[in-house]
Amino acid sequence: MKVTILDCYTDEASGLGVPPYLGTYPRYLFGKYKSEGHEVTYLTIDDLRLWRKYGGKKKVPKVSEKTDIYTYNTTIHDAEKVLGSVKADGTCGTDLLVVVLGVHVPGKYLSAMPGTLHEIVPLISDLSMRKVLTGPAVFGTQLQGGKKSETAGYEYFDSVVNSDVPFEELEKYVPYSYDIILQIPDKRVIEIETGRGCAVGKCSFCTEPLKNKFVNRAKKYVVAEVIEYYRRGGRFFRLGKQADFYASDDPIGMLREIRAVCVDLEMLHIDNVNPNSVVKAGGEEITRAIVEYCTPGNIAAFGVESFDNEVVKANLLNTMPAMAFKAIGIINKYGAERGSNGLPKFLPGINIIFGLLAESKKTHKANMDAFAHIVEQGWMLRRINIRQVAVLPGTYLESHGGQKFFFKNKGLYWKWRNEIRQKVDNPMLARILPLGTVVHDVYAEIYDGKTTFCRQMGTYPLAIGVAGRLVIGQKYSIAVTGYMLRSITGKVV
Predict the structure, then answer these.
(1) Using alpha carbons only, what angle is made at residue 271 by residues 239 and 16, rounded to the nearest 5 degrees?
(2) What is the pLDDT of residues 331-350, one digit of tens each?
(3) Which residues contact 40 (CB under 8 A, 6 or more apart)?
């Protein structure tokens, strides 16, 4: 059987699959069908758009135009030949189309655009093969915060399937998955799954407790997967796809064993961290190991969500403000030293959500007071993610108020967001990267008129605007010349 996996990119609380990341869902599915003896092709939504919307020809941006991110991340394949070719008996060249789709934590993406059900259905509805929808979308999907989950379109698929399987079964497929990267011409960050579910599992908005009970993936399989991709040329990895890296199966041993073999990695980062785990016994030892074995520019994404005690209680959030402050201090203690690529080795990042239960004007004041305290302590935050909550099916938020508080305070969100950006993000960037600091291993990524936007490969990498048109894909060293709200400007040195 000929199977095509169509990756529309995924973004959820526990993991990222939007380029330059390569998520777990398409890789596992590739391995599953390969292990069963099928012929498997990997396509992206960009491949499909290029065929059905652009007639197979990529746009070359004029000097005044921006790079088209809708067709930026194509594979080695021609989607028309894979999906549109017809056999002698009138059937399509692909027997089964598996669509991987779903966004649970909407964001902005520099060089990719996730597909939606609204977009994908018209593009594939006239194709004759069997169609299956999987990925986070089976629990709902929404590309914009402040809106209810999108479900219209399920009826166009032959089946909608939750592709998560127990780790014991999954490990049978993983050894067959590695060659997927041979179908992708560009570099990718391989998102490695270390666990599922959440040890706390109560946050009102989160779908993780709905998808899985808390369970760790065995360290030996995590290490083996990294090493096998490394042997096939992979040099960028994130140990993510979990709610708390510190709660992984022997995180110190995991990092040590990976680096014993993978000696020249360009990127080894982590993702989500529960601040409580940093503070409890053993947390400082894990922090020191992350600084030692991971590459610089690493970030612990703290799901604080709000520094308002009333919001914390109403939404069953994991972390009280006092605990968050302690964790921020510990990571700064060990990770603030500048690394070889020009960035501090390991810093915390903060997630803030607008629209949660019990939110009020006092919430914003509590958040600003907390950020002021962080600044006064001399601590650094590598980034602050601010988003409007997406109400997803089956969550505590949906059944206890839904969008009530989002609509109540909707008119204030831009003001609140802008104040955080102006008073916290901007001076924090200057603290992290003083003028003249040189950052290395920076890749030119897209054009926006006469400006090239560049990034290092990393977890939440910093965008750098450089005047002129650099060579896309080439690596540069860049000196910091100025600051925007969430990005910096620089010049090649």
Answers:
(1) 80
(2) 999 999 999 999 999 999 99
(3) 3, 4, 5, 30, 33, 34
| Contact predicate 31/176, CB 8 Å | yes
Query: What is the pTM assigned to this prediction?
Result: 0.93
Q: What are the backbone dihedrals phi and psi of residue 339, each rounded to the nearest 5 degrees, phi first?
A: -95, -175
**CATH code 2.40.50 region(s) in the chain:** 438-492
Closest CA to 66 of 444, 446, 448: 448
Q: Is the peptide bond before 20 cis (omega within 30 degrees of 0)?
A: yes
The answer to whether residues 221 and 249 touch, using CB atoms and an 8 Å cutoff, is no
What are 51-57's contacts with CB under 8 Å, separation 24+?
51/78, 51/79, 51/80, 51/83, 51/84, 52/79, 52/123, 53/123, 56/80
The encoded tokens of residue 230 equal: 């490394």
CB 469 within 8 A of CB 450: yes
CA distance 108 to 120: 19
Fold of 187-432: pyruvate-formate lyase- activating enzyme (3.80.30)
Supply the DSSP symbol for 268: E
Structure confidence by residue, pLDDT tens digits, 39-84: 999 999 999 999 999 999 888 888 888 999 999 999 999 999 999 8
Has residue 85 got a pLDDT over 60?
A: yes
Tell me the DSSP string of 394-407: T-HHHHTTTTHHHH
Location of structure tokens 């746009």: 59
Q: What is the dihedral of CA 286, 288, 293, 298, to 10 degrees?
A: 90
Which tokens sit at 202? 């109560």
What single letter denotes the amino acid at residue 309? N
Give the amino acid at 353: I
Q: Can you name the CATH fold of 438-492?
A: OB fold (Dihydrolipoamide Acetyltransferase, E2P) (2.40.50)
Q: Measured between alpha carbons, how far is 438 from 492 in angstroms, rounded to an integer?
A: 9
Question: At what angle are helices 413-420 and 361-376 packed, to 10 degrees?
Answer: 0
Q: For residue range 118-163, what is the model confidence (pLDDT) as tens digits?
A: 999 999 999 989 999 999 888 878 776 655 666 667 889 999 998 8
> What span, in angstroms and rounded, lies between the C-alpha atoms of 382 and 370?
16
Angstrom distance (rounded) from CA 360 to CA 317: 16
